């Protein structure tokens, strides 16, 4: 069976809360704090939960990247992190119980078009290679990846398929 290798170019650590009501300028006491990885990391996690072979490749940096790695340790995922300059973003969602509305906040992160220069040719140094038994699924930063995914992975990521 082929293994799915996911590549998440702009992962985030997702944080979700519930609040009775959201008011501007006030500190809101939240309930039900919950942490999850996002994007292609979740694709790999779902494939593994369904019994399929999967490996997650993802860019990670800074103190928030270390907390994302520790979160993935809890899930016992097969994975390969690619160090970058800058911090892994933290995305926040707040569910307002009174109105049943959800408010979402997500920074661009270091792999956005404005932050792409902060990447330091990560995978060339860290050996991200696909085997003949792997197929890749890319996720995150659609404004970057969708323009030319093959070129993005080959040039920016240094990805070498089928070695």
TrEMBL record:
Q: Where is this region: Disordered?
A: 104-129
SUPFAM superfamilies linked: Ribokinase-like
Mind naming one GO cellular-component term on file for this protein? cytosol
Single GO term (MF): 6-phosphofructokinase activity
Q: Quote the protein name from its UniProt record.
A: Carbohydrate kinase PfkB domain-containing protein
Instruction: List the source organism.
Output: Sphingomonas sanxanigenens DSM 19645 = NX02
């Amino acid at each position: 069976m082929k293994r799915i290798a996911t590549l998440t170019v702009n992962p985030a650590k997702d944080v979700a809360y519930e609040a009775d009501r959201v008011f501007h300028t006030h500190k809101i006491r939240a309930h039900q704090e919950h942490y999850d990885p996002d994007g292609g990391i979740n694709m790999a996690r779902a494939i593994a939960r369904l019994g399929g072979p999967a490996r997650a490749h993802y860019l990670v940096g800074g103190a928030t990247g270390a907390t994302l790695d520790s979160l993935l340790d809890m899930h016992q995922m097969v994975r390969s992190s690619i160090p970058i300059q800058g911090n892994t973003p933290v995305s926040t969602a707040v569910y307002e119980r009174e109105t049943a509305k959800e408010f979402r906040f997500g920074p661009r992160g270091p792999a956005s078009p404005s932050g792409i220069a902060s990447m330091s040719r990560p995978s060339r140094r860290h050996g991200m290679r696909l085997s003949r038994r792997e197929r890749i699924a890319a996720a995150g930063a659609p404004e970057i990846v969708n323009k030319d995914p093959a070129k993005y992975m080959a040039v920016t990521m240094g990805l070498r398929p089928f070695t």
